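Help wanted!
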Amino acid sequence: MRNVTVDNITEVFSAYFGDEADPRSKEVLSSLAKHMHAFVKDVNLTHDEWRTGLKALEWAGQLTCPERNEFVLLSDVMGLSSLVDMVNSKPGVTSSSVLGPFHVSNAPPLEIGGDMRADFGGEVVLVEGIVRDAQGEPIPGAVVDIWQTAPNGLYSSQDPKQDTYSFHGLMTTDKQGRYAFTTIRPVSYVVPDDGPAGEILKAAGRHPWRPSHLHFIVEAPGYQSLTTEVFAADDPYLDQDTVFGVREDLVMHYVTQAAGTFPEGFVLSGKVDGEYSRVDFDFKLAAI
Amino acid sequence: MRNVTVDNITEVFSAYFGDEADPRSKEVLSSLAKHMHAFVKDVNLTHDEWRTGLKALEWAGQLTCPERNEFVLLSDVMGLSSLVDMVNSKPGVTSSSVLGPFHVSNAPPLEIGGDMRADFGGEVVLVEGIVRDAQGEPIPGAVVDIWQTAPNGLYSSQDPKQDTYSFHGLMTTDKQGRYAFTTIRPVSYVVPDDGPAGEILKAAGRHPWRPSHLHFIVEAPGYQSLTTEVFAADDPYLDQDTVFGVREDLVMHYVTQAAGTFPEGFVLSGKVDGEYSRVDFDFKLAAI
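Answered by r_m:
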């Protein structure tokens, strides 16, 4: 090691582990060094660029607080969060997608057929589906944690005018594995772009928009927890999600329903006379 | 982009640049994404490991202040700082090495033959050499900024007992391109290991020691500024520098000199009767 060179530094790094290093730490750190070294060499990173990167991390540190995690956002806009989701996904089941920073734990129970709109107006959307296993069999008693933006584009945790659990609910599937609720369409929104993640977007000529989506965490005993998002097929940002969250199997359709057809079994039954729209989306969970 | 997959995400990232993105930003960000994506895929990074990485960055943000930059230290222990130094080095001249966090700007002038020991005792070391161009011709009037640890292992900026400019000096080479001063041997020391960089060292089974070294920044009109360190050949940590700073051409020798041989032309001339040691080290600067 007394002669570290551009050509041998990665090898020197990988050779420089003590016997007590656990194999996984060694694997992860060696690979991180290998790929970061390759990056520096590929672009011949200048000292100014290196300092810019370090300043960006310092700035992220200054912005990060319980309400905002700029490091997560940096991971998101670089596609890392989505990639970690994907490499940990199982084939043949519903894709996972980013958790995001706006989930509130311990949401109140929402009965099947319940309504999430609170005091917000707007066209009613009926969302329903079945939670299934990889073979398509329904899973009764699965817990479906649902959250979304209000129509003003804000999650409750961003909006002092909303209650903590506004547009959040925790539903348990029935004997047929079914969940169902009414809500208002979530809207497209921008990720915070006044920090280093925003600077990356500006440097890349990218916008900070995400296509509108419903968030879900679906859990059932014996199955892997699924954290995902479901996106509207007609959203203008579907092909430009700034955090790379969209997967083909996570695209849903809002289908307009004729007036007078709103079904029984919902809190809003008998109260929706006009047109409404409907989303049908099933989840498939991987067994543990 | 509505179907991001493990296989296409890097391509999707690289295709997702606006027309206004400048070519260098595009090159650097695409390459960073490519290599970070390859890292995640190579090790199948788990969500827990991803969260551990983000927590490490958050922690680095909390520790970083004017006196300590944990992000620089993370870059150092991963070998990135050294690699950035090396890819920006020119062949045929003295290698650069890490600046480190302990340099104090605007050190007071130190005359040729001056003494840096202040009130510290210990064996006298005479350091001298010539600043040269790539062809070996001396460069008169080059400014040599020198700093090092005190014998207690601390730089002045770490040690409330030392003056700001203790073991710091700014020397201008004479007509023969020569610099010369007396000092005490700097000592091996540990980088701060109570933060995430320390956790990386622990996970790797590595220690936080750096071999002892003298720091130099050498500047002259018409030449590239050289930031470097010069290491003692007999230091026990020479082959284990925790920040990968050692290069073969930066290794120096302390050569013990017989009593009664201390030369003229030094502040200490006539005051050193016993043995002392001597270091001869020339610098070669690249033309701009």
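OP: Thanks! One thing I noticed: Chain B has two domains: 1-45, 91-191+203-285.
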